[in-house]
């Protein structure tokens, strides 16, 4: 948390310094600054929550990077420096984020922190070189390659920054967070970098008319990304609704599947799983009891952890068959099918779902001391039923939720 506060303070001080310096000195090339401010502001107004739960504003990011890497406007050298770039982007981003602040969006502060630090990094890499005349000596492809190289460095810096902020905020393992951020770069990240470079180069040749022209491809990409995020959200809601079938039919307690899914996802993060693996674990946890719909006589309270192993496997195989018919990813069906196998033979997702499901059932049965007693029973079962590393990861997750747990080991 100290790191997150430090990054926010650094971004705030940098923004105040840039705004104060720009107000004192005035704007160089006010028309250019206004044009890029409008572009960034519109991009921030169109920000949305992407398919993986991240705030996405590709047009605003591309416009900010293009202004940071701008050296000429219609063949005439520009005079703005690093502090003016930061000031213009901050002012535009603040105006664009007003609706989200009014709505109480909690991620706005971190989004602004990321935008300020990333743009400052890009401008600091390019503007001093521009004022020394180095880019002018590199004409044609060399200049374009320089901008692309700087944008790649900026994208890597942004990925490191976002992963560090998420780690500081959630205490999830840093490595998987960084890996997930790097995996997103070839998608929207590459489109943002390419558009930023093209905007900067085209503005240097044809002037500010390049901004609306080269914004169109990114706008189309943005619309496609939003549609994809909507489809993913609908898909997730469909799976959640399907998982509630066992609750509606009275086979499992209300909210059981959702609780198992949320806790399984946290345990997966603690184990270092990536976003795609976490999605598989979450979907499998939501539908782990769906095989009970095939039973003539319901299991009391839906508690399958205490059933004979053969019966657990039969229910798991029935559930896997149902999952395969829904069209869900085959990996989800595999996790559901193998949740009753010996843990040494299970994929990691099945190990997680099995342990978390057993914990949730044991907590429900154990009364006031449920969490402590349930966890102790899981630890006693690590010789055969539950993977020791999964159980200890579960213990760490629960300890972060302010539960008093016995010492590990």
Written overview of the protein:
With 409 residues, the chain is an all-alpha fold. The chain has 18 helices and 4 strands. The strands form 2 sheets. The chain has a two-stranded antiparallel ribbon with strand order 1-2. Strands 3-4 form a two-stranded antiparallel ribbon. A hairpin with a 5-residue loop joins strand 1 and strand 2 (55-56). Helix 1 (2-25) packs across helix 6 (108-131), helix 1 (2-25) crosses helix 8 (141-170) and helix 14 packs antiparallel against helix 15 (330-337). The two termini are 28 Å apart.
Which helices and strands, and how do they pair?
Blueprint (H helix, E strand, L loop, with lengths): L1 H24 L4 H16 L2 E2 L5 E2 L1 H11 L3 E2 L2 E2 L4 H15 L1 H5 L5 H24 L2 H4 L3 H30 L3 H33 L3 H34 L1 H4 L7 H15 L4 H12 L22 H17 L4 H8 L10 H19 L3 H11 L7 H13 L9
Antiparallel strand pairs: 1-2, 3-4
Helix pairs in contact: 1-4, 1-6, 1-8, 2-3, 2-4, 3-4, 3-6, 3-9, 4-6, 6-8, 8-9, 9-10, 12-13, 12-16, 12-18, 13-15, 13-16, 14-15, 15-16, 16-17
Radius of gyration: 26 Å
Quantity of strands, as a count:
4
Give helix % range.
over 70%
Lateral arrangement of strands in the main beta sheet = 1-2
Biggest sheet architecture: 2 strands, antiparallel
Shape: elongated
Main traits of this protein?
409 residues; mainly alpha; two-stranded antiparallel sheet; two-stranded antiparallel ribbon
Quick structural summary:
The protein has 409 residues and is mainly α.
